[in-house]
Amino acid sequence: MSPSQVIVLATPVFLLLIAAEVAWGIARGRNTYRLNDAVNSIGLGMLSEITKVFTRLLRVGIYTAVYAQVSLVPPEEAKAFWSTWYGWLLALLFYDFCYYWLHRAGHEVAIFWAAHVVHHQSQDYNLSTALRQTSSGALLGWIFYLPMALAGVPPLVFGIVALVDLLYQFWVHTEHVPKLGWFDRWFCSPSNHRVHHAVNDRYLDRNYGGVLIVWDRLFGSFQEEDERCVYGTRSPLKSWDPLWSNLEVYWALARDSWHTRRWSDKLRVWIKPPAWRPADVATRFPRPAFDLQAVRRFDPPVRRSVAWTGAAHFTLLLGAVSMFLWHADGMAATQAAVWLAALTAVLWSIGALLQGRITQLELLMLEAAVLATATSALGLLEWHRWFKPLALLLVMGMVAAQIRQGLGSRRQQALLLAGLALSLAGDCLLMFDGFFIPGLVAFLAAHVCYIALFRQGMGWFPSRQALFATLAVGAAMYAFLFVHLGPVLKVAVGAYVIVIALMAAQAIGRATVLRDRASIAVAAGAVFFMASDSLLATNKFALPLPLAQLWVLATYYAAQILISRHALASAPAAAAVIPAAAGPESSLSLRT
């Protein structure tokens, strides 16, 4: 049985214990759970587990290679010793010792904190927090366990004691277990670990032990719980986005490394303590000092219906993740990659719903787009034929909701709906053999509608640079495809390339004039359209691409969603109509 399958079997136990803690907290009048935070924490644990399918080489492969090639103990002698009961016990102690130093590095070295921060972002402290795990820890964490490989600990023994150490730590994430006397002096306990998760001055960077707290007492990092704990990080995440949760510190470090002038500081940013910043960067981009009294929990309001929707979809997602993890070891890498992309996209969407960034209808739309993409990439064509038109119908529903809110002029509304209706026709035609040309014509007409939409309140192609750039990209793509096309397709594809290049030029030019987030999002959507069609044509006519349907449909739905969600939101009518292909001077005067 694989570690992923063990986690699947343990999941119902985790959830039952979480439910018991919720019930206990409610009964005692001290509930420590919020739905949005718990969903975010459990979701990050799910993301961590599914990414482990792709980090086996780092987590197990390197360890196994070092054990096989560099072990200081002959393999037979090592297996004989480590397979005894005292060998297993020593292996667990050895692992916990290594874990202590990895954990300590995770708080005292910036690059390791970038991975470990995920576990500390929750401002609640409960059993769901235990499941909140990093997806990038395997990138460097394996280094700390190499001493076990050198000592001849077999990979199987290593894997099992690692799992035992991890599972032990689940129960210590609770506020409902008080101090435990002598137990607290030897083992990592709820009291000791509450200290570890707190941001109080006296608690910061303390109590790193996994199973034993003895390591902290030996190496001077122990602190007893003696004041109320305030949980989270000193730079709060303030988001339910699982991707940003994993990337926020890496991004901050990369930004500081980029902005600092000294080359030595560009490196030191990554290896100094997390709070350290180069002097020039700290001066140019100051951060407010941490004030414990000013800490407020991130808790955006959410309607009851939205909360129920998020919880229901999250429950379904949990089942899908469990199914994936159970079968992951037998999957091809490409198939597993599709699952990873689909499950991550749905997890992101649920977080966005609970944060108020998208509506319930938009959640359904995103999920339909994800399922249309995944079923195509996995070859589930019967399901794909349902989800593909459904996704566009839900996009049209989203636009209808915008129209009810009064967004856009009637002409803009009609052009956007016409473009989507023609895209829907193209979607349906392209799903069946022999209808490529009619599908191409439908999409060509859709792009003409989009060109007209993007011209509302604008001149023709406000940016010469954008026009020349998109036409040049289109010409290069057409030249690449030309030798692979028949006579009829040469004409059809040539016309299509020109139209989509003009659509992108019009959208980008519009963004250079308006300079608002909505118009920039529309321009990004137009660029995604060019990318999607280029990938489709390359795969169909010139060169088969790995996971072609994943890339083609992911960029296609990104294009349609960005355009549909933002095309009516900007207000070009408020600006003067500028001449076609206006120069920089006229654009500047318009903005000022």
Automatic annotation (TrEMBL):
MF GO annotations: glyceryl-ether monooxygenase activity; iron ion binding
One GO BP: membrane lipid metabolic process
Membrane keyword on record: yes
Membrane topology according to the record: Multi-pass membrane protein
Domain Fatty acid hydroxylase: residue ranges: 88-221
Bilayer-spanning residue ranges: 85-102, 142-168, 306-326, 332-354, 361-380, 438-454, 466-485, 491-508
Compartment(s) where it occurs, according to its Swiss-Prot or TrEMBL record: Endomembrane system
One cellular-component annotation, GO: membrane
Superkingdom field: Bacteria
InterPro entries xrefs: Fatty_acid_hydroxylase (IPR006694), Sterol_desaturase/TMEM195 (IPR051689), TMEM86B-like (IPR012506)
Chief subcellular location: membrane
Presence of keyword Thylakoid: no
UniProt entry keywords in alphabetical sequence: Lipid metabolism, Membrane, Oxidoreductase, Transmembrane, Transmembrane helix
Family in the record: Belongs to the TMEM86 family.
Designated name of the protein: Fatty acid hydroxylase domain-containing protein
Species of origin: Ramlibacter lithotrophicus
